[in-house]
Amino acid sequence: MKVIAFNGSARKDGNTAGLIRSVLKELEAEGISTELEQLAGKQIQGCIACYECFKNQDRHCAVKKDMLNECIDKMLEADGIILGSPTYFANVSTNIKSLIDRSGLVAKSNKEMFARKVGAAVVAVRRAGAIHVFNSINHFFFINQMVVPGSSYWNIGLGLNPGDVEKDDEGIRTMETLGKNMAWVMKKIEFRVKPFAADQDCLGRVLQKRPGSPGFFCQSQVSENYQARIFRSLAENLGPFFMLGSFFTNRLFSLLLITSMALTTDMR
Ligand SMILES: Cc1cc2nc3c(=O)[nH]c(=O)nc-3n(C[C@H](O)[C@H](O)[C@H](O)COP(=O)(O)O)c2cc1C
User: Fold this and answer.
1) What domain range includes position 220?
2) CA-based torsion, 114, 115, 118, 122: positive or negative
3) Same domain? 211 vs 250
């Protein structure tokens, strides 16, 4: 799994970058790979409302003279997207606004191509106006059918000069919690999107933790919903073989497999 983070500040390695890095650190600790793309010194022009993206349907913006399509490719490849912006006159930075408008219209014209990716806003501010920036970025995530995790406070850090946010203890804690929650949500989505891979991983952990465990079937400890999901996952991935095996020759093994997995996850 991967998260791409954009720092929309005109200042490289400033406060927005510092806050984003606090989120990325937690994601990395959870085994999620990350990339930080700093937009300082680069110019992404605004949307020209040509609506060519609706005609072309190629998941790219028709304006090709800047790096916007590279940003879109990174967003498409990632499972999670962080948009970080400083507060400029109570609003997002110019580059973040361009990224929102152009990638947003391309997403809309290409079958909601960001749907169910996980999104998080990160905002640096000296004093006031950050909540508007936070809302603007979240509007982008929500209209694109993305999933947005929360934190212990709104994702805002206080500081004027580069590095100042490091002194905002609560701001940094908010980012760390955001990183943990983002990782948690991403893993849950991964489980649903690629259930069989997750199930295999889960089973691997079962066997390591409990060597020789018979994995008794214990219906009362496992929700019907979870049983149904594992059943569906196995049926989808192994198709007729699983169905035949489960109904004729190998029914007991299937039950043991399902039970082992179900008993050792927190998905009940
Ligand atoms: C053009 C401009 C407008 C700004 N407007 C605001 C503002 O509305 N409210 C505020 O509290 N700080 C404002 N600031 C201060 C920045 O939000 C603050 O310094 C922030 O930490 C910058 O993040 P950075 O280090 O990532 O660039 C403004 C700064 C600039 C350059």
Assistant:
1) 195-263
2) positive
3) yes
Query: How many whole angstroms from 163 Cα to the centroid of ligand 1?
Result: 13
**Do 188 and 202 reside in the same domain of the chain?**
no
Global confidence as pTM = 0.77
**148/150 Cα distance (integer angstroms):** 7
* Ligand 1 pocket test, candidate residues 21, 87, 95, most atoms within 8 A of CB: 87
Residue 214 DSSP code? -
The verdict on residue 268 lying in a domain is no
pLDDT per residue rounded down to tens, the chain (268 residues): 999 999 999 999 999 999 999 999 999 999 999 999 999 999 999 999 999 999 999 999 999 999 999 999 999 999 999 999 999 999 999 999 999 999 999 999 999 999 999 999 999 999 999 999 999 999 999 999 999 999 999 999 999 999 999 999 999 999 999 999 999 999 999 876 655 544 554 554 444 444 444 443 333 334 455 556 666 666 766 766 666 665 555 566 667 777 766 665 554 3
Length in residues, the chain:
268
**C-alpha 2 to ligand 1 mean position (Å):** 29
Check whether residue 164 and residue 182 sit in a common domain.
yes
15 lines ligand 1 (CB under 6 A): yes
